[in-house]
Amino acid sequence: MGQTNFDAIGLGRDSQAETLFAKVLNATATVDPASVGAGASITFTITVEGAVLGDYCLVAPPYDLQGLVMSASVTAADTVTVVLYNPTAGAIDLASGDWKVKVLS
After folding, report:
1. Which of 3, 13, 40, 78 has the fewest CB within 10 Å, making it most exposed?
2. CATH for 74
3. CA-CA distance, 105 to 103, in Å (whole number)?
């Protein structure tokens, strides 16, 4: 993939392209997710100081999710909730690891 041409989409160097987000917050948390049964889901939270409802969030797990489907959102002040859903036919038990979160506003 190439670089985005911000001039081509009307966002020149001295415009909104450099300030798309007013704040970028980062956090890392060691999490040992519970085993996720077939057809089930689990949730866990990660604290991100300064996060507020309506912010965008990105979560990076430290390993392959082995078929789990992940979603994440800011659910309260300073709190990102991660949901892991298991659409497979067997339980999946992930190891403990350092999960990274980036919140954009």
Report:
1. 3
2. 2.70.40
3. 7
> How many domains does the chain contain in total?
1
Sheet with 56-60: strands ordered across? 24-31, 97-104, 56-60
In a domain, 16, yes or no: no
Would you say 78 and 88 are in contact if contact means Cβ atoms under 8 Å apart?
no
On whether residue 8 sits in a domain, the answer given is: no
Q: Quick check: 52 pLDDT over 90?
A: yes
User: What whole-number distance in Å separates Cα of residue 68 and Cα of residue 36?
Assistant: 9
At 33, list the tokens. Answer: 């997710």
Q: Which domain holds residue 91?
A: 21-104
26 found inside a domain: yes
Sheet holding 41-47, edge to edge: 41-47, 79-85, 69-76
